[in-house]
Amino acid sequence: MPIGYILTVGTFTGIFMILTVSLNVLTGYAKQVSLGHAAFFAIGAYASAILTVKFGLSFWAALPCVVGITTLVGVFLGLPSLRVSHDFLVLSTIGLNFIVGSVFRYFSFFGGSMGIVGIPMPEFFGHPLGTAGFFGLTLLFVILTILTSFYFSRTWGRLAMEAFGEDEVAAKAMGINVAKFKIYAFAISSAYAGIAGALWAHYVGSVFPDNFGFDRSIDILAMLVLGGMGTIRGAVFGALVLQMLPEGLRVIQNYRMLVSGGILALMILFQPMGLLGRGSFLVKGFERLRGRLVSHEAEDMP
Amino acid sequence: MSLLVTEGLTKDFGGLRAVDGVNLVVGEGEIHGIIGPNGAGKTTVFNLITGYLKPTRGKIHFRGRRIDGLEPHRVVSLGIARTFQIVRPFTDLSVLQNVLVAWGHRNYYGLGPFKPFGPAKRKALEILEFVGLAERAYVGAAALPIGLQRRLEIARAIALEPKLVLLDEPAAGLTEEEITRLKELVLRIVASGMTVALVEHRMTFVMDICQLITVLDRGKVIAEGTPSQVASDPEVIEAYLGAGEGEGDA
User: Fold this and answer.
1) A120 touches B at CB < 8 Å
2) Which of A8, A47, B26, B149 has a CA that sits 20 to 30 A from residue A57's CA?
3) Which residues of B touch A156 (CB under 8 A)?
4) CATH second-level architecture of B2-85+161-242?
């Protein structure tokens, strides 16, 4: 296998790891199920494409703006969650996915269906990054995403999200401003997804509305559900498996939606906590093994 | 000194007047019981005080400040904690994490949400110790029997560091032995400087520990006084026995 191919697969896997970890904040912690996560991904990609191609900014100068834009858009797109919850929120996130896709398709400012092409590779000390360099850059952002997300998993904000995600009435009685924390969840999740979008845009070199369709949202959710909602290890693992699997088994690539949809449906039915989620059969088995050595106190969330 | 005062508190649900001009005064440091037959509006009064419902008419003052119409989380931040008639533990979380969620109340503003909760575990364990749940700290909240889930609800309420704790039927579904321990716990809560108001069906429980009792019937206050005054009030006896709600010990 040529090294370039491996690095490319690694880069895309890394981008999807960032996306899955970002969805974990929203859907794993705050239990706001989103079937429109590709919209946040798209906004990051388009924001970076426009800032670099149309406004001539460098990747590095554009990136903070991209994070700012996606955070703000996340706040805005999170507003429906204040009015609707559960099934209706899922429906409205699907709607958002289509709305965002349509805006990029129908407004010439965003390139319409011709998309935006000629997005430059990020430069490092005056030299455009190559395949290996970009893989390194992606890896850096994956590590940053995991580290910051891991830190967040130990904060009051995460605890508040877990609480209202399960029971909004009880959470309010604990002094939690549920509306504010829902918006936080959307904003944080969207900010990470924006970084993933920017990486995607600059690696591929072009963005088209079709890159960020509803099927993409299903992919991302399937990765998180497979790995285990509510855990970072699950998010990373799910992205790794579902992104690598089609590379190993070429035939799967032709049936990508069948695989993603099938995994989503089967996992929700039989193993809703995912393979590595809290209380999954693998984690229980592992804890039983380890339990003989250490006390049960060492939990995922102390 | 009066901690909580309601004036003409009224709540309509469509054509039904669930709470009708209730004047309630809860003094600092007391254990105040609110009793009455089913549908008397007791829980509705709690929901009005804690911001879960907005009054149709009337005012609520807490420590001299108007709180009617405030959001529930604001009411909590002013110093009123509540438990629920039907327990609502966070079942995905451990017992300790449940208490941590409540203890976090002062970190849910400003940059607080981005601070780690780890250092607060010691304090949360102390609170669990106080209610007698320390040895179950790392168990999932869903695994607790109902009696202990009620203790967990009380632990969460205490963790909010309130001035006033509202307990909604804390004795419901408990065994006699658990009730004895609950009484002792309520007394310790008051001894540590909090005020308690409770809604309850179990008459013995209320008669034993409350200094003052307010009796509601069909949304109205029909009697108020010490347990012995209330127990001998003809209108109260009528409301309870007439409605076929009487418990032999009333």
Assistant:
1) no
2) A8
3) 104, 107-108, 112-117
4) 3-Layer(aba) Sandwich (3.40)
Encode A228-253: b = buried (16+ Cβ within 10 Å), e = exposed. Answer: bbbbbbbbbbbbbebbeebbeeeeee
Q: A3-270 belongs to which CATH class?
A: mainly alpha
| pLDDT (tens place) for every residue of chain A, 302 residues total | 789 999 999 999 999 999 999 999 999 999 999 999 999 999 999 999 999 999 999 999 999 999 999 999 999 999 988 888 778 888 999 999 999 999 999 998 998 889 999 999 999 888 889 999 999 999 999 999 999 999 999 999 999 999 999 999 999 999 999 999 999 999 999 999 999 999 999 999 999 999 999 999 999 999 999 999 999 999 999 999 998 888 777 777 778 788 888 888 888 888 888 999 887 888 888 888 877 665 444 444 54
Q: Any chain B CB within 8 A of the CB of A294? A: no
Q: Residue A170 corresponds to which tokens in the numbers above?
A: 């009880």
Say how many Å lie between the first and final Cα of chain A, rounded. 43
Q: With contact defined as beta carbons under 8 Å apart, do B163 and B79 qualify?
A: yes
Instruction: List the domain boundaries for chain A.
Output: 3-270
Of B93, B105, B117, the CB nearest to A175: B105
Distance from the B108 Cα atom to the nearest Cα atom in chain A, whole angstroms: 6
**Chain B residue closest in CA terms to A278:** B92
Q: Which residue is closest to A156 within chain B, CA to CA? A: B113
- 18-57 in A: which are within 8 Å (CB) of B? none
H or E element: which one contains B46?
A: helix B42-49
Amino acid at A194: G
Comparing C-alpha atoms, which of B232, B110, B204, B96 is closest to residue B152? B96
Q: Which helix (H) or strand (E) holds A22?
A: helix A3-23
**C-beta atoms of B73 and A176 within 8 A:** yes
